[in-house]
# Entry
Amino acid sequence: MPQHWPAAAIARMILDGFDDYREHFRQITIGARARFEQAQWQQTQSASAARINLYEEKVSEVSGWLHEAFDAEVLLEVTQWPLVKSAYIGLIDPRLDDELSETWYNSIFCSLFSHDLISDGCMFIHTTRPSLRSHERAAQTRTYRPRSGLASVLTQIFNDYCFDVAYGDLEGDLARLEGQLRENLPDWVCKDPALAVELFSPVLYRNKGAYLVGRIYTQDEQWPLVIPLLHREGHGIEIDALITDEAEVSIIFSFTRSYFMVDVPVPADFVSFLKRILPGKHIAELYTSIGFYKHGKSEFYRALINHLANTDDRFIMAPGVRGMVMSVFTLPGFNTVFKIIKDRFSPSKSVDRATVIEKYRLVKSVDRVGRMADTQEFSDFRFPLSKFEPECLAELLEVAPSTVAVEGDTVLVRHCWTERRMTPLNLYLEHANDAQVREALEDYGLAIKQLAAANIFPGDMLLKNFGVTRHGRIVFYDYDEICFLTEVNFRYIPPPRYPEDEMSGEPWYSIGPHDVFPEEFPPFLFADSGQRRLFSQLHGELYDADYWKGLQEAIRGGKVIDVFPYRRKPR
# Structure
């Protein structure tokens, strides 16, 4: 062992790698404005996927740097890594993104060492940063006070938020916006002399939209404020809506959406700002929503271990039909499910473990259009044995012994995904009244259509594979059979050759591995005849192969669909 172990040099190399990652992340992010102005929608999708993949690419790159710079016997001397952590803390203390740099350090450590060597001495299992602190610098917000009326303040806002493409009908949009504002807020608020509008200075971009985000407040009350902008090619930029309802704003920042692109030099400040207008959102979800999904994962993990340490909650099997590929468990008091791959799948499933992992990772990089739950992938979770109900642990050990093991008083889960917990759609419908059934089936069909238009075919569209969120939205969450819509061969069932063909239990026609027959959907999706009839009325085109082929043609032609994360009003 060298007399002077190179803790400071290792810490510096890790942080240099983080700086490189942050610069590449920022370059992709700041390009969002030009892509919006130039209506480069396919490039927007590519940039989103590239930014997601960037993190693991850079972690791998820095791990390579370290192996090249230091002998393995030096670099991998884990007992010396508390010195690296200490040196690293000194380096990141002045930074404005120090909480992200802790997560980066953890990722590098985990790329070098096995997970059984994880400890708070070597890593940042618990952060050393104050929670959502404010840095001593000018806040990145603009405040407007409508002393001359609402119309004047709206005009001032859009004088400040201008683009290299002109607004198509700014005067008409502002008049409509003022009307929406008066409709959304009580009359006394609009007349309150203390009324103010505070907007985050950087614009948020996602898919085909740009978003101004902030709040409206008086001395006593506040409302979130989101103003979505669209670029209609050939017609300029239009102001599409004005949203002040907290539930609707929450959906815009939902776990089912792609990540925003927004340039935030001080991420904690922006997350703190979002937390003020969306107090029901956990900071893990807010960090994730702006692209820092690895730090969102860190905050999720810290919340989980805190919950386990401070409650009597115990893991149980998640309610619903048992999966044929995955086994799902949950904590009743923690709004998350944990999904593990079974050792053996049901005979009807043709996928293997590697394919399932590939499908779940695919979901991370595609546009989820508000209809697929985001996931976080974990390796080597360790939970106290006492935190499992015996029936739950017995089932997990039975169906996935290669993934779940008991080691003394600890349960090791070698690999799992976490997702937001939802009510399975089949269970929801069992207790829903007629109006709720209609609304749920309407949204279920819309979810399938929006996924398809985004080039995603769910594969297994059974009700049990969709969930209902707390806002009543229908979301797909079972990914082992998803594929790109353009990979599917949609067919009509050929007419029978003989009368006997229809009586046969076997098809009279050949079926390829990618063939799908939409005519077969009704009895497959709905055991309840009333629900089957209702869905046919609402979304009968889903049973027509030509409908799906038309979507495929549009996708192959480069069309990027509009899917809005808010309710649009007639213009």
About this structure: Residues 20 and 530 are 58 Å apart (CA to CA). The two ends are 73 Å apart (CA to CA). The longest strand covers residues 222-232. The chain has a mean pLDDT of 92.
